[in-house]
Amino acid sequence: xxxxxxxxxxxxxxxxxxxxxxxxxxxxxxxxxxxxxxxxxxxxxxxxxxxxxxxxxxxxxxxxxxxxxxxxxxxxxxxxxxxxxxxxxxxxxxxxxxxxxxxxxxxxxxxxxxxxxxxxxxxxxxxxxxxxxxxxxxxxxxxxxxxxxxxxxxxxxxxxx
Length: 161
Description:
The chain is of the alpha+beta class. Helices cover 23% and strands 26% of the residues. It starts with a strand and ends with a helix. 29% of the residues are buried.
């Protein structure tokens, strides 16, 4: 998931109550469909800072609430208001994410390009501006390895067996 740090940063997520926040304001139909139909509770999130001098994956989060109508689309005072949206026709969706862990260092686009698995990530495709993109399991574990992070779900999964 991509965010401009001046709008909402990884540090903002870490400082949020319960280290949890909604991922709102997505106004692209392809990304909306992904949030609404594909993203599930427990999914891992690579938190990516965009629109800065050196865009990078900066941390890890997890989905704690699956897709639901984005209330900011209904609020005329909200930055992401959409007059076409309504209670019967929400149009836009969001999920809730929670802080899951830090990387030892941010992974820049150059870092991703240099890695044989990560070089194929959607975030590197020319012209791709989607704020929500799928990541394969292989890419997830490669990011953990290159980013020097422990798997935030390993302990959680051990407790389920």
